Amino acid sequence: MKIAVASDDGKTISAHFGRTRGFVIFEIEDGEIKSREYLPNTFTGHARGLHESGLHHHYSSHADIIENLRDCKAVISHGMGRRLYDDLTSAGIEVYVTDETDVDKAIELYLKGQLRNVSELLD
Predict the structure, then answer these.
(1) Which of 9, 12, 35 is nearest to 22 (CA)?
(2) Closest to 71 measured CA to CA, from 89, 93, 88, 104
(3) Tens of pLDDT along 41-77?
């Protein structure tokens, strides 16, 4: 299975999923990390400048995010909009909005079944 963690630097979990510079993609097999790669964020509306240019009212689909992360069982972020949270979960992707800020610690907690989902961090 794959897990995507929103991160600007590969070490710290991003405060906002859609504005992150990229995602650390972990391949997990039998409860162990088999690989780790960094996927630059070129597909969210924020990354493409759609929100800053005033187009956010016309661009309301999260289809590109879901398509690019479709092979991930779960995503982890430190913050996220409620609509994106709902769209990801509707697509069958587990979403964790956590108060943990360290990428490696979050994966460790996820694998142990101890990663907390903090709904207060949704905006």
Answers:
(1) 9
(2) 93
(3) 987 755 555 554 444 444 446 788 888 899 999 999 9
Distance CA 37, CA 72 (A): 13
- Domain annotation for the chain: domains and CATH numbers: 2-121 (3.30.420.130)
How far is it, in rounded angstroms, from Cα 110 to Cα 73?
12
Q: Which two tokens stand for residue 13?
A: 């979990």
Cβ contacts of 36-42, under 8 Å, gap ≥ 24 = 38/7, 38/10, 39/4, 39/68
Whether 64 and 43 have beta carbons less than 8 Å apart is answered as: yes
Predicted confidence at residue 56, as pLDDT, reads: 47
| Rounded Cα gap, residues 58 and 13, in angstroms | 29
